[in-house]
Amino acid sequence: MMDWMRDNVWAAWAGIAVVLGLAELASLDFTLLMLAAGALTAAGVGAFFPHLLWLQIVVALITSAAMLAAIRPLLVRKIHHGAELKTGSAHVIGRSGVVVKEIHPDGGGSIKLNGELWTARPYDEVSTIEPGTRVEVMSIDGATAVVYPIGHPIDHTLPEFPKDTEPPR
């Protein structure tokens, strides 16, 4: 058995690579995959130089270290730092829709957004938005879309009141 192992050391390295590759499927961290690559290169060296175990180990360590330092960060960045998945009502923020029922500060308005009907209220809390107006969803408040007409600058000023009356409280 030991004679066969000494003559076919590449098979032992290949077996180690397979075990590390299968273990990577459970961890999904790309660390074991880089170690498996080192074992595969050691298997290649072992096929040509079966009696130089020290060379196989050195090649496996250098390859694994290089893969961990250079390739793994690129893979992790590519896989784990993709576009953020928005779930729930957050996926509609920033999207545009069309007013189907007049939106006024007191509530009761609605918009059509991605084929769905949403209750809506104006963002600035003082304006009325007519049906047919394109609006952008600024935020979601419960199940109500807070919207603002597209193309209009956001006005943060308070409405003017006649000088002879007092503003509402």
Structure description:
The chain starts with a helix and ends in a 20-residue tail after the last strand. Strands 1-2-3-5-4 form a 5-stranded mixed barrel. The radius of gyration is 32 Å and the shape is rod-shaped. Helix 2 packs antiparallel against helix 3 and helix 3 (31-48) packs antiparallel against helix 4 (53-80). The protein contains 4 helices and 5 strands, in the order ααααβββββ. The chain has 169 residues and is of the alpha+beta class.
Low-pLDDT runs of 5+ residues are none
Total number of helices: 4
Q: Give helix % range.
A: 40-55%
Query: How does the helix and strand content classify structurally?
Result: alpha+beta
Distance between the termini: 94 Å
Strand order of the largest sheet: 1-2-3-5-4
* Estimated radius of gyration: 32 Å
Beta content: 15-25%
Order of helices and strands: HHHHEEEEE
Question: What is the arithmetic mean of pLDDT?
Answer: 84
Shape descriptor: rod-shaped
Question: Topology, please?
Answer:
Elements: H1 2-7, H2 9-27, H3 31-48, H4 53-80, E1 96-101, E2 109-113, E3 116-122, E4 134-141, E5 144-149
Parallel strand pairs: 3-5
Antiparallel strand pairs: 1-2, 1-4, 2-3, 4-5
Helix pairs in contact: 2-3, 3-4
